[in-house]
Amino acid sequence: MTDAPARDTPLRIAVIGSGPAGFYAAGHLLGDSSERFDVDMFERLPTPWGLVRSGVAPDHPKIKSVTRIYERTAAHPRFRFFGNVTFGIHISREDLLARYHAIVYATGSPSDRSLGIPGEDLPGSHAATEFVGWYNGHPDHSNLEVDLLSASRALVIGNGNVALDIARMLVLAPSELAPTDTADHALDVLARSHVREVIVAGRRGPAQAAFTNPELRELGALSDADVVVDPAELDSALAVPDPDTELDASTRRNIEILRDYASTPPSGRPKRIVLRFLLSPTALLPDPRSVGEDGRLGAVELVRNRLVPAPGGGLRAEATEERETISAGLAFRAVGYRGIPLPGVPFDERAGTIPSDRGRVLDPSSGAPLPGEYVVGWIKRGPSGVIGTNKKDAQETVNAIFADLPSGDSPGSGATLAHVPETPDPTAVETLLRTRQPDLVTYAGWESIDRHERALGEPSGRPRVKLTRLDELLRVAASEQPSP
Ligand code: NAP
């Protein structure tokens, strides 16, 4: 380490991950009026925007339009994008600490939580991460085999917004899917789907469900599907008062919406979404007709729960003796996402996050902040909240960076001094990356992909037709990227 930088030397920040949290952090740093920061963003894919591109449901274009804010950040002269760069393969923590004053980890929660029950991996049983990635054209999931022809009923496990996204995507009419940027391979399979009923099962009741009001309400406006709620099951799931949620306006509104569904007779639409409560899956069972072949999913065994006080407050699900078997050839596990460890970076296995204090990464052995290492978004706080939640979260982390600036530069006094890199030379990073990753994608490369995809979508009135294979993305990125 060398001495602290001079007052007017830009501080170099590496942001790992280009989803909302990474972009809000970059935006806050570059919005700093004294223009102190250079921000380089590293992304595993050739494309930016994280879950806005590959998580937000394609029929929610308004939510996706948030990328306009990130585009403004990317246009800042002190911002650079390095895509197709994997942390731990093409660039390590040590490489970055030698070249940047601070690293901000913004890698989200790309994995799924598992249920830990038999049959979870049977063909026909999918994690939300892979199915959502598949319909959104994520290159990691574009080859997923999704068989929507062999099953007429699907079970979605979980009571969060991802469960509702999946249920909706499974019943949207071709006319509702047509104007979206759903990946072409998924449009084709969804158009031929034989799925007629989607059951969404929560282990607790409506007062504990994680749905937000607009997402629950929009189910009632689907052109091809009725929403079915059994009034008796709804009443029984609401029988135990929950002091934690009953005063919450959003919960009360959800319950009103569900009561509305329960009292509305089906209108004869060809498909239906059935919302069920107090059910936990205990096993995914193979279809007896497929045993000896690929052993495909045929049914899900569930146990009925009752709500009992949880030790830390609120209500938890407790299994009763009552069981139910639902025949279903498809199951989607939408029980939350999970962070994955980054090579050399502290990780809390239990929480699936990087341990931190208000954005400062903590050394697990001493509990003290690690100089120059920060974290933001889902990999900091876990997979909760909507896209906008990351704005405030990023501000907290950027405030910690400001507070840790060497004294004299700082609007506050920090717990740790800013880390000082040995070689803070901006050109050295790009040179190093190009030797390790010849297919480096810069922001110009992404803009080339963006233009190409938009042009493909234009004739059919779609926002874009996504390129879903890595080789295609790299070919188009290289077509207009300035050569090194
Ligand atoms: P989530 O909101 O945390 O919901 C997870 C659900 O899974 C909960 O109902 C949870 O029930 C249930 N669950 C967990 N473990 C389970 C188990 N072992 N068995 C049965 N059920 C289990 O997670 P998410 O749906 O993945 O969403 C992640 C975040 O993204 C959320 O903040 C969400 O709002 C956001 N999101 C927003 C939108 C939107 O704004 N349109 C769209 C998609 C996602 P318990 O409560 O009982 O644990």
Biggest β-sheet strands, sense, barrel: 7 strands, mixed
Distance between the termini: 30 Å
What binds here, in terms of ligands, is: NADP nicotinamide-adenine-dinucleotide phosphate
Helix content: 25-40%
Give average pLDDT, whole number. Answer: 93
Choose one word for the global shape.
globular
In DSSP terms (H or I, runs of 4 or more residues), the helix count works out at 17
Question: Looking across the biggest beta sheet, what order are the strands in?
Answer: 3-2-1-4-18-17-16
Structural features, described:
This protein has 484 residues and is α/β, with parallel strands linked by helices. The protein is 31% helix and 20% strand. It is built from 17 helices and 18 strands. The strands form four sheets. A seven-stranded mixed β-sheet has the order 3-2-1-4-18-17-16, with helices on both faces. Helix 1 (20-30) packs across helix 14 and helix 16 (443-457) packs across helix 17. The radius of gyration is 24 Å and the shape is globular. It starts with 10 loop residues before the first strand and ends with a helix. Mean pLDDT is 93; it is low at 1-7 and 410-415. It binds NADP nicotinamide-adenine-dinucleotide phosphate. Residues 115, 157-163, 165, 202-204, 208-210, 212, 215, 280, 334-337, 383-386 line the site of NADP nicotinamide-adenine-dinucleotide phosphate.
